[in-house]
Amino acid sequence: MSKRANPMAVKSALTYDVSEAAKALGKSPATIRNWIKDGLPVMARQKPCLISGEAIRNYLRAKYRKAKSQLSHDELYCLSCRAGRKPVRLTVEVIPNNTKTTRLRGRCECCGAVSTRIISNSKAHAFAQTFDFKEGENRDA
Ligand SMILES: [Zn+2]
Known about the structure:
141 residues; alpha+beta; Arc Repressor Mutant, subunit A; two-stranded antiparallel ribbon; binds zinc ion
């Protein structure tokens, strides 16, 4: 799963141009421009457009909340569809992520791309009812 930007990496009282925002958030300027196309509000239409730190925070929080809430119990997040999708045959690889979480990885039923979901280890049993778990290797997609 691609890394999420940390909304707290920008200061709500400051304004940022695209390259400053990219740098603060560890993203590429192209990503910031995509966010603007996607609805991140800018303060002026002329160049360089400025974005308030507060707008960035609100945008990221809403975006991530949305991505999270889109997942049903039987879905992974498809990076290509950018949406919750069922994995093919409901089969997922189980990859230890850290001491508290596990990464599930499958193939998107719609497009075949890698889809992932981080679950808390305490919920692994519940997910095992839904998905067919198979052991995975800890490698990147
Ligand atoms: Zn997909």
